[in-house]
Write a structure and sequence with these properties.
heterodimer; A: mainly alpha; Arc Repressor Mutant, subunit A; 2 domains; 10 helices; B: mainly alpha; two-stranded antiparallel ribbon; 4 strands; 6% strand
């Protein structure tokens, strides 16, 4: 497969059809980046299209062609954040802890090791992360999912570095406490320790 | 709990940075020394790492796929000017050229006047107010001059008529103040 640098060079010299290779290569990853912020499939798809068009328009400004994907990801995150702010219709929802604990709802013959990676666990994690206030949710998604540094998050969200740290700390604390309350993380760690 | 300098409280403050590999070498050594002897903090690290991994795997790329190739490419082609970097926001030369081109365009006099009017709206109001104040002052001064002239005319007229009156009947009036003489006016006739 051609490297991004070579493809970009071809596109910049006028062979725009080569841009399609970049779209094919990154569209799914970019779609999930947009989805994680916008939380809406249709909106995410629109954001992906806009991100590629913007990337095409600004392709001549990219400093490090080898790092096309991180550059495209930042374009996507910015578009998704702007889009979210424009259509602020998702209200922060407090999730009521379900009365029956996670383990109580599992079938008796379930293997605990396999449970940890199943969809049910992911559903809980998603539930708790999505229930965070938006300002905390954004930071934790950018850090844990998109692997952005504290500095990058600070720059994108236009908040001080200290605020990034405190929001990340609070977000992790809330999610962890809820998972512990449901009997998830504690048991996992104790098993690992043993 | 304190273990050779680093307490559990100190560790909690560094926990996030530690699991994000955001600590210095020296801090890392201190933390690891603490973790060697503190099981509760070791569990905290384990929990933090597990939560990170859970979130990453939950929100990572899943089975959903999209295909925007044809849509994006057709959008790019349909714009007509399908050259890379068609966004000129960072192209200084293009911006300068566009300014030059704009300056050669015929100026719409009406629009220009309107914009000037808009820009100088406040100034116009200030000038009008100043004019009204000045006019009022000038008018009041003219009025007071007129009044003065009329008074002097009356005085001179009165003086003229009083000098032609017969001396026998000239009367000097002395008004006695209310406090002195019940408001009676005494009249002295002289020969």
């Amino acid at each position: 497969m051609k490297t991004d640098e070579k493809i970009i060079e071809r596109v910049l010299t006028g062979d725009i059809s080569k841009f399609e290779i970049l779209i094919e290569k990154y569209q799914t990853q970019i779609f999930y980046v947009a989805m994680n912020i916008s939380r809406n499939k249709d909106t995410a798809e629109d954001i992906v299209q806009d991100a590629f068009i913007k990337a095409f328009d600004k392709l001549h400004t990219i400093n490090d062609r080898a790092h096309f994907f991180p550059w495209l990801k930042r374009i996507t995150i910015n578009l998704a954040l702007n889009n979210y702010d424009k259509n602020k219709r998702i209200v922060d929802v407090e999730v009521e802890d379900s009365e029956v604990s996670f383990f109580d709802r599992l079938p008796d013959n379930s293997d605990p090791e396999s449970i940890m990676i199943n969809d049910e666990l992911k559903r809980y994690v998603r539930l708790y992360v999505d229930a965070l206030p938006e300002r905390l949710r954004r930071v934790i998604i950018m850090r844990e999912v998109e692997d952005l540094s504290y500095e990058e998050i600070s720059e994108i969200l236009k908040i001080p570095l200290g605020t990034v740290r405190s929001r990340l700390f609070n977000a992790r604390q809330v999610v962890k406490d809820r998972l512990i309350k449901q009997g998830l993380t504690d048991s996992l760690v104790s098993r690992t320790a043993n | 709990m304190s273990h050779k300098g680093l307490t559990c409280g100190d560790f909690v403050k560094l926990l996030n940075d530690y699991v994000d590999f955001n600590v210095s070498k020296k801090e890392s050594q201190l933390i690891e020394k603490h973790l060697d002897v503190c099981d509760s903090c070791k569990i905290k690290v384990g929990n933090a790492v597990k939560v990170k991994k859970m979130i990453k795997s939950t929100y990572g790329v899943g089975s959903s796929t999209i295909d925007v190739r044809s849509t994006v490419m057709s959008k790019l082609r349909s714009r007509g000017n399908t050259s890379v970097g068609s966004d000129k926001s960072l192209d200084l030369s293009s911006r300068i050229m566009s300014k030059i081109t704009d300056s050669k365009k015929p100026v719409n006099v009406f629009k220009f006047s309107l914009s000037v009017m808009e820009n100088y709206k406040v100034l116009s109001i200030a000038v009008a107010t100043l004019f009204i104040i000045t006019a009022t002052i000038v008018y009041s001064q003219a009025e007071s001059k007129k009044l003065m002239a009329a008074r002097s005319k009356i005085e001179s007229y009165a003086l003229e008529h009083s000098s032609t009156a017969p001396t026998d009947y000239r009367a000097s009036t002395n008004s006695v103040g209310d406090s002195m003489g019940n408001g009676i006016t005494s009249v002295n006739f002289s020969e």
